């Protein structure tokens, strides 16, 4: 029997319910999904699992670096504007 396919929004809602403290049994009944599927989604899509993803870590580091560059450029821009106003 082929595996049943679920939409991404259903997966996100299931994982969100679990992260908010809903018992697995309740989530299984609410969505009509197999227990193994719920655990697999939790392991794959939870915030903790995503935070360990190497690509996600790389993007977070790049985001931090770009924010720092933006802040530095904004401060430099402000200083230059103040100098121009004094002239």
From TrEMBL:
Biological process according to GO: DNA transposition
InterPro entries registered for this protein in UniProt: Homeodomain-like_sf, Transposase_8
Signal peptide range: none
A GO term for molecular function: DNA binding
Keywords: Coiled coil
Top-rank taxon: Bacteria
Residue runs in coiled coils: 56-83
Protein's UniProt name: Transposase
Organism: Skermanella stibiiresistens SB22
Upper classification of the organism: Bacteria, Pseudomonadati, Pseudomonadota, Alphaproteobacteria, Rhodospirillales
